Amino acid sequence: MRILLVDDNSTNLKLLTKLVGKLENCEALAFSSPDAVLSALPELEFDIAIIDYQMPVYNGVELFTEIVRFDKYAQVPVIFVTADKDMTTRMAALNAGAIDFLTKPINPVEFQARVQNIVSLARARRQLADQAEWLRREVDRAVIELRQREQEIIHRLTLAAGYKDPETSRHTLRVAAYSEAIALELGLPEQLCNDIRLAAPMHDIGKVAMPDTVLLKQGRLTEAEYRQMQAHAQIGSDILARSHSSLLQLASEIAASHHERWDGQGYPNRLAATAIPISGRVVCIADNFDALTTERPYKPAWSFERTVEHILGRSGTQFDPDCVAAFERALPTIQAIMINDRREQLEEAEKTLATLSSQVA
Questions:
Q1: Which positions bear 4-aspartylphosphate (predicted)?
Q2: In CATH, what number does 162-351 get?
Q3: What's the CATH number for 2-135?
Q4: CA triplet 158, 160, 161: central angle to 5 degrees?
Q5: How much is the pTM?
Q6: 207 noted as active-site residue
Q7: Cβ proximity of 29 and 73 under 8 Å
Q8: 281-307: per-residue pLDDT in tens?
């Protein structure tokens, strides 16, 4: 236990140092002037301060007021040493944070009793602080482990959703990356942007309930088939709903709202404008961008430029204008994501071709 001693009287300082030395496991840090103490801050480490009240330049209260400007000393117990029995002086000391007083001339027996009590208090505070820090670390560790489990659940559900159609898996990952880029440009909190990236791959989880004749159909869907496919949004939300996981709750929200339109003409609930959750408004643009820039059974892939023009032209009707503006700002990032994904697909195709060639040979 390190005890700061400040007294401009050398005789008193020597006495205080000697008395601290008699306390068990206590070390004295003696200073003969307030200036010397202030020069040593904030590197100075101590657990208790014993400060003379009457000193030149700075009195004890003024010195301690300067010390506690540093947050690390805010909870340090302070004892003032004074020969002044005036109540005004003592009230000033109490208001500064004094926990006790020692009256000059110092009585060694009284000193030992009073300071030992403060030492015990300081040790108890330290133990509580250590326990609080341990608890904080344990809570942080538990939260990280829980989030990792949630991410694994989402990853495995996404794999399940793309089991019938491998392209679906790549689509969900691209939509997740595009969504995060848009959310960041929209100025959403960083944690929410990250959560949207993690939850967005679940936006089409409801398609697991679609029959293969509809899901894998080569060509355009009939009107009845299209209405059947529309049900995937609500089904996906229902699959994920009522989870205690915040990520799965967000995924449920996205599944239910990523086909809603700003003008209220979307599905499944015909929500309009800000009644649509912001996560759904963001993913809606990301999903449409990816659907248009990739080949589908019923259409060829659109060019990057044509797709951008299409989305900008539907600001205020299909899409949230603020999200469209964020999408436009995010275009360099979005284009880089798209190019990188196509490079990865080409590399995978080349590896597959090389494997097949070696097997034939």
A1: 52
A2: 1.10.3210.10
A3: 3.40.50.2300
A4: 65
A5: 0.62
A6: yes
A7: no
A8: 999 999 999 999 998 777 889 999 999
